[in-house]
Design brief:
alpha+beta, Ribosomal Protein S5, domain 2, Alpha-Beta Plaits, 2 domains, 10 helices, Ribosomal_Su5_D2-typ_SF
Length: 289
Amino acid sequence: MELKSPAKVNLFLHVTGRRENGYHDLCSLMCGVGLYDRIVIEPADTGISLSCDYPGVPEDETNLAWRAAALFFEAAGLAGGCRIAIDKRIPPGAGLGGGSGNAATVLKGLNSLYGRPFDEASLESMALKLGADVPFFIRCTPVLATGVGECFEVLPAIKPYHLLIIYPGTGLSTAEVYKNLKLGLTKSQKKIKSRLLNEGVIDPLHHLHNDLEPPAQMLSPAVGDARKALELAGADGVLMSGSGSSVFGLFREPQGAQAGETLLMCLREEKPEQYAGWQLFLAELLLTF
């Protein structure tokens, strides 16, 4: 079985408070994007094996996709196993949800392979045990995420955009980004949600904001360099996704995103010492998946 495992972006991310246990409350507009890892799942008599072509990605039980498979077999009461091969295009540690998407894709793939013993709601409950944003990828439709990111509300229509994504070559630690966050006045989730839902067709350009971008830029100046490059490339709006380090530009037309990519490829060739590690991706918002 061969499956596509999509990435995601946060079209806004407001940190609305900090809990006593150290976790932060969020209010975020999450949307899948058409940038995919490829996952192949094959049944096996016993045990779980995983391989990945991306350097540094673990191939044991520390990989979320491996843990997703183990969770599925335990919940289904099955003694079988599987072989998982991940052809990874979404960079790890990029704020694009690649690992979480892989885990959800494995859950969905195994569920299909073994006769669909679980509905989507059950898969989402399982996915939550693996991470706060893993349930998002079960349906991968635009949602307003609240709580620590685990509470989802499906949103009405969102205006489509094309994306040019820059991964600056090195990831960021989510824990370190939050550690450097200077939390100001607590924001009201109700006000954020009201403004969003009163818009009718939601235009992401009106809402682009990420409270985690300033601390991410402190840790990695490359985030700021990527922002400036996308602005130079003519993006209609620019934002860092999640806790970084990827930065994306929104374009109304695909030709604009393609022209931006061409310009940034030229920039990378002109200044290889500064931009050699950059990876560029063209994609689009996934309004359905």
